[in-house]
Amino acid sequence: MKSYDLVVVGAGIVGAACADYASAQGLRVAMVEPGPIGGVATAAAMGHLVAMDDDPAELALAHYSLGLWDEFVDLPQAEFSRCGTLWVASNADEYASIPAKLARLAAVGVVAEQVDAEQLYRLEPALAPGLAGGMRVPNEAVVYPPGVARYLVDRAIARGAAWYPQRAHQLTGSGVRLNDGTKLDGNVLIATGCALPQLLPELPVRGRKGHLVITDRHPGLVHHQLLELGYADSAHGDADSSVAFNVQPRPTGQILIGSSREYGSQTSDISMAMVRRMLARTLQFLPGLSGLDALRIWTGFRPVSVDGLPYLGKVPQHANLWVAAGHEGLGVTTALGSARLVIDQMLGNVPAIDPRPYDPMRVAA
């Protein structure tokens, strides 16, 4: 039996952030991950750093986390680009919804502005004609999530954290047993995304499949990360499948195209029917992308909790068990804040935001 203050199971960006922050607080940390660092959901994330305002708790966590990302602006492997977000209104009704969104963002300190159609096309000339306007959030950004996860893990190891390239096989009364028989004693924090029910079946998670397409290099074609104002209807809806306009300019000059969501698929196989549907939605907003070459198409699964909010905190009826999982499409944005929220509670510190909306007790009870 090897003893640690904290054993973090999972080294996606959320688990990596938890290990990094815990080691920075002086805890003796072990990390357990059988596959590549950031190799599952993190590798299939678009890497947007964006505040979604549709749920107050989601907005609070995103806004808290966004402030923590400033540390990585100059980190080469983060590929940090403060391109800003431009939410596009397709019609007058969507345009009319913008003042309410601005008010919700302003209430937590997010700077944003409404832009009319003339300003919209000045900002993004390649957009399709006939759009009503939009909302610009200038300080938001995009990053390369696997690069950040690797950096966070390396930083934790540099502080003395131990690394176990194994699979967590079973929880024990005092820690966790790995698939090679190794026993690790101490507080356990599970950050395994869609695999969470394998160790914690009392906290349900559904895998929601998504496709991504990346093009060849076309610098200057798109200047902001672009989303349709109806994006949240797709992101938060319960439809078996949906698509929404979501495009990013990468620092490489490539264009990253999303966004699809699909329940029920159990494999990582590419569905060309879903890709065509996603691209058709994209071309409604950016018809000029039809002339670009796609270099790669891949898929991943977003871990969705029962109510759309992540599980962050102590697991009920377990003496030393904690969780940070179920972030759906906001795991990258909220990884840093999620880590601090959980570790601060573990250490008895006062959390920076109210932790109650994310308490696993709301489900496990």
Query: Based on the structure given, which CATH architecture of the largest domain is correct?
Result: 3-Layer(bba) Sandwich
CATH topology of the largest domain: FAD/NAD(P)-binding domain
Query: Which CATH class of the largest domain applies here?
Result: Alpha Beta
| Mean pLDDT rating | 95
Main beta-sheet strand count, sense and barrel state? 8 strands, mixed
**Number of discrete domains:** 2
Order of helices and strands: EHEEHEHHEHEEHEEEEHEEHEEHEEEHH
The geometry reads as globular
How many beta-strand runs?
18
Contiguous runs where pLDDT drops below 50 for at least 5 residues: none
How would you classify the helix and strand content by structural class?
Answer: alpha/beta
Radius of gyration: 20 Å
Distance between the termini: 31 Å
Question: Can you tag this structure with a few keywords?
Answer:
365 residues, alpha/beta, FAD/NAD(P)-binding domain, D-Amino Acid Oxidase, Chain A, domain 2, 2 domains, eight-stranded mixed sheet, 11 helices, globular
